[in-house]
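[[Encoded backbone]]
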Amino acid sequence: MKASCGVPCSPSGVVELPPEWQTAAMNIEQWWAQLKPSTKAWLIDNNGDAVPAEIVAEITNAGGSVETDAWWVGESGPSGFYFSDEAIDWIEAVGNGETPEPR
């Protein structure tokens, strides 16, 4: 069934979103501001450790997708999710009261 809402569709009827409607994953600066203070404190205190599933869920709910190739996404495997080295440095800077350069 083809969409009839006035947006462009492919020949197969799949809605094609205009580029301005397509969004990339939020950057760390954007979703960090949405986290609970206790979550930020845990991330600062445990920087570099595997991130628990409930914190990954909070990051995702805040707009950060750990399924992307964003610069802050590191390894993910059986032992959990890890931030990239650059993200670890960013979190350390925030924990030290610094304002890291935007990426």
Residues 24-95 form one domain. Strands lie at 73-77, 80-83.
